[in-house]
Amino acid sequence: MDFAAAFLVFIASMRSFWIWALMSMGSPVLSVCGLDVHYTHGGGKYSSAAKAGNFRIISRHDMELNPMTTDSTKIRVRFAPSPTGYLHIGSARAALFNWLYARHMGGTFLLRIEDTDLERSTEEATQQILTSLDWLGLTPDEPVVYQRQRADRHKEYLDRLLTEGKAYKCYCPKERLEELRGKARTDGRIFAYNRAMLEPGEMEKYEAAGGSFVIRILAPEGETTGFDDMVYGRIDVENANIGDFVIARGDGSPLYNFTNVVDDIDMGITHICRGEDHVSNTPKQMLIYNALGATPPRFAHLPLILGPDKQKLSKRHGATGVMEFKEKGILPQALVNYLSLLGWAPPEAEFNEIMPLDEIVSKFSLDRVKKSPAVFDHEKLQWMNGMYIREMPKSKIYELVIPTLKSRFAVNSELASEEWLHSIIDLAIERSRTLSDFADNLSYFFEAPAEYEEKASKKFLGNSEQISQFVESAGVLDNAWAATPTPTTGPIDEWCGAMEAAVRTWSDARGYKFGNVMQPIRLALTGRTASPSLFHVMALMGREEVARRISACATRLSATAQ
RNA sequence: GCCCGGUUCGUCUAGCGGUUUAGGACAUCGCCCUCUCACGGCGAAGAUCACGGGUUCGAAUCCCGUACCGGGUACCA
Fold it and tell me: Which strand (E) or helix (H) includes residue A167?
């Protein structure tokens, strides 16, 4: 090994390293890196490297906030569902991202119901969508637009394209179309119809025969149509791969791509944010904007939401309708927070995932949206929901939970005062991740245990010795209770402490482990091995009921014990 | 088939050519707290950054190819 030569190679390799090191030392040489450096007066966010001076590196991430290129007051976005079913969680996220973008930019959020497909659209679905959005808090800033009511405008624009020769009536029969389609496929080409595909005079022949026709837009030949997607970047498609697609049926009823564009133009939409499944529709729509001489909006496509098997999220993955989440006891704030983090994340490397809405709004930006699809994780939603429950004012929790208890159990209003209900709910707050968990966690307050967890009853009350110990502990408990009655008002912590001390003194004297004394009692009162602090449970259950359950348990288990 | 995309721990993600032995969160496991569970606290494990080339002194980061996955390919939206 020649060390001198090796050393020279090392020095040479370090040359560029020193150039890099020099460049990182100060902004005056930033331009050497080939970065665009712009001078601004303030506003927007600055990259940390340029923050100190008045220089600002324009990167993909802060383009949108550049006050010189965007007039934020003019932003208008819309959510445009078709009312063919309930509001899907994926659509809800699209609605949310539109709403967030509008709020962030100080713009306007609109809702348009695309009900032109008379066969599939229903009034019921429309109402469902409206209530779902309302529940999520995504209410539009202007009256809802119903596409069906805009037929006159669609016709107007259609006629204009026809008279200007930018669209034409196509009499080509379906069979001929199929033939062409089949040929393209065997040739290994995409099928994109273009009337020049027909033999000379063929169209005239079909027209003379008086067949039905459709209206197709004319895709200028030899050109490329594309757009700059705010999420995916530049997407270009050759017109030859788009073809003269149908924009209206023969009876004049317009199709999706056409109505969509016409309505967006009339509504003054500046940014379209929708699912990734619309990417391939976008060049078609660009063609329509161009034909109509309208300035197209900016597009931002959102990656899809998948199920655990990485397939598009659907019914068989469990809940997909927004209202199903409500029924399962998910809070809208939690769902919104969770959804906002599917495919988007704020700029900080480490951030608190539990974010109040206004924080999400202030941090939100479309160009931080990811390109790849995300798997919907019910576990994480549940965790987040639990966090929201624990942060919520108690009065609000009572308001939401009491109806669920009343619907599930026979809640006798004489025995179960509001105050009592509040107290038992308090015990379940940190043990519940959804609103429906409360009823599960508190069921034993309403129904005496029908059975006892088998494994635990064998372990703690499996023989006569254990049972007699249990009965004895119950006696100690009842005596202590007689000596210190449960306070009828105010906090019960002190009472719990006194009761615990009494039981502990006894179990210590007998050399029993406290836990082994408490578990049988827990089993007797709740039927389970897990519950809130037992003395709190007893205080709220009442001395008589506690005694009743203990003796019922002892009786039943001694029958089976050895 | 063809067109258009995507690919970082099991999952959601950070990452914008050197500060990365790839950071955080959920889930998992362990410890502490403790009458059990939960909450909370502490900690562990978990990603050869899909693969193969290239550019560069230096690549998870830029370019090309391959594989796999997805979307689209309608007189649906």
Answer: strand A167-170
Q: Do both A116 and A240 map to the same domain?
A: yes
Kindly give the pairing relationship between strand A145-146 and strand A108-113.
parallel
A315 annotated active-site: yes
Please state, in angstroms and rounded to a whole number, the distance separating the CA atoms of residues A553 and A433.
Answer: 30
Round to a whole number and report the distance in Å from the CA of A18 to the C1' of B57.
10
Q: Which domain holds residue A7?
A: 3-65
CATH of the domain at A460: 1.10.10.350
Q: Which residue is nearest to nucleotide B19 (CA to C1')?
A: A24
Nucleotides of B under 7 A from a protein CB: 1-8, 10-16, 18, 23-27, 35-40, 56-58, 69-77
Question: What's the whole-model pTM score?
Answer: 0.87
Same domain, A227 and A277: yes
Q: Are residues A57 and A161 in the same domain?
A: no
Task: Output the DSSP codes for A205-244.
Answer: HHHHTT---EEEE---TT-EEEEEETTTEEEEEEGGGT-S
Number of domains in chain A: 5
Active-site residue, selected from the candidate residues A74, A183, A315, A396: A315
Question: Whole-angstrom Cα distance, residue A130 to residue A124?
Answer: 10
Residue A89 resides in a domain: yes
Q: Which residue is nearest to nucleotide B17 (CA to C1')?
A: A20
Residues A239 and A254 in one domain: yes
Please name the residue whose C-alpha is nearest to the C1' of nucleotide B37: A530
Give the separation between CA A386 and CA A373, rounded to whole angstroms.
Answer: 26
Q: Tell me: pLDDT of A160 over 80.
A: yes
Give strand letter and number of the nucleotide nearest A259 (CA to C1'): B77
CA of residue A380 to C1' of nucleotide B43, angstroms: 22
Question: CA-based angle A302:A306:A307, to the nearest 5?
Answer: 160
For residue A447, tell me if it sits in a domain.
no
Give the integer Cα–Cα distance in Å for A274 and A232: 12
Which tens digit of pLDDT belongs to each residue from A299-338?
Answer: 999 999 999 888 888 887 878 899 999 999 999 999 999 9
Q: Which helix (H) or strand (E) holds A483?
A: helix A464-483
